[in-house]
Amino acid sequence: MDVLIGTQRVDGSYLPIRTTGDAALLIESLRRSQRLPLVLIHLRSPESWSLARVLSAKLVGLARVITLNHATSRQIFGSVPAVNVPFGGAMLVWSDLEARGLSFTGEDVVELGAEEVRARLMGRLAAISALARGIDEGWRSARTEARAEARVAAEERVRLATESDDRSGEIVALRSQVGGLQDDLLVWQTMAEESEERRIEAESLASSAEDERRNSDYWREQYEGQVKGGVVEDVVDVWECIPTLLSRSDPAQTFRALEDAAQDRIVFTEAAQRSWKNISYPDPEDMTDKLTMFAKAAVDLYGTDTGTIGHLDDWFAQRGLKVAISDQAISRSPKLRTFQFEGREYSQIPHVKVRDGVKPNEVGRIHFDLDKENQRIVVNHVAVKLHSI
Questions:
Q1: Residue 378 reports pLDDT greater than 70
Q2: CATH of 3-133 among 3.10.310.10, 3.30.200.20, 3.40.50.10770, 3.40.30.10
Q3: Angle subtended by helix axes 114-133 and 46-58, to nearest 10
């Protein structure tokens, strides 16, 4: 079943904006006033992913949740300077782009948590939603029409009972008519109470409107001053903000940052996270460097101008990575040679050789497969050799 508000589909999922084409469509949508408010989230950390899941489930009908990577976030800012989503954070964007939204930095998202961010957004969204959509007029109209038909039917029963001199029937019909009128009275009382609540709410909002106007004027002057001086581009080097892996710890912060920097051209499975978390790798900084190089290679591999690739291992070697496409030990093992991700089977044979010529428990490996259909590299293992675990 499709649920709509106006002409917009409402569901409990978020909309990912990963490519320049996706971002261009969102920019066009942002400029339309006939849309729901949007909550834009820059997916950079496990906390930002959690926020996207919570908000998409709990703001249904109030706002549309959109997720961005760093590249699409900057593309949107370049075209619509008023929409400047904080690095790793979130931003509420009203249907009127000139209206002041609500922003949360990446630090806010981590420190406040998803539920507190949701509560603060609800404080803004709920009142506006009530004023914008108000009472369910469709239900009210149907209820009024049904009660009118019931009154006509009750009056007809009274008339027939009176004409036939049926006193008992007349009493029953009159009681029915009185009951219907009492129901009508209750409906009108409820409507009056709803109207009074709306009036009080409107007066409460209006009482602070002047302060908000002054505040808005101040910030608009600040914003216009910046715009007149030229659009201020984000100077963050997304590749310089990759958290360094720590041995025997959750790598989610690092993996999510790499996915964001690579514009989702590389993804890490839950198995990849477990593989790193379960070992004490001797040189986590080196593994972080190799993963960063690998993520950059994924961007080149699935970019707009890849050039001639030739042999894949040679292509990766030109980018400082030693890649093996075959492995006899893994090929012979039904348990190791494939893995499942998002309902599909992938090969686990290709791998990046991170460390060789060291103790067996220190030989680093990144096992992956190429997902040509989705234009990405899927990583399923970041640890030591698969068959040595």
A1: yes
A2: 3.40.30.10
A3: 30
